[in-house]
Amino acid sequence: MKVSLNLMIVVLATITFGCKENHFKKDVVMAGGKYVSAETLNYGKSVYTEYCMPCHGVNGDGNGVAAKGLAAPPRNFKLGLIKFGDVASGELTHDDAIARSLREGLKGTAMLPWDLKEKQTDAVIQYIKTFSPKTWFGKDKELGEKIVANNDPYGLARKTQAIEKGKKVYHGVANCQSCHRGYVNLQEFNQILVSVGEDKVNELDEDFYKIKMQDSDHGYATMPPDFTWHEVRSAQNVQDLYIRLAAGVGGTGMPAWKGTIEDDEIWAVAYYVKSLMEIKDTPSRKELMSRFK
Question: Residues with Cβ < 8 Å from 30, sequence gap 6 or more?
Answer without folding.
Answer: 36, 126, 129, 136, 137, 138, 141
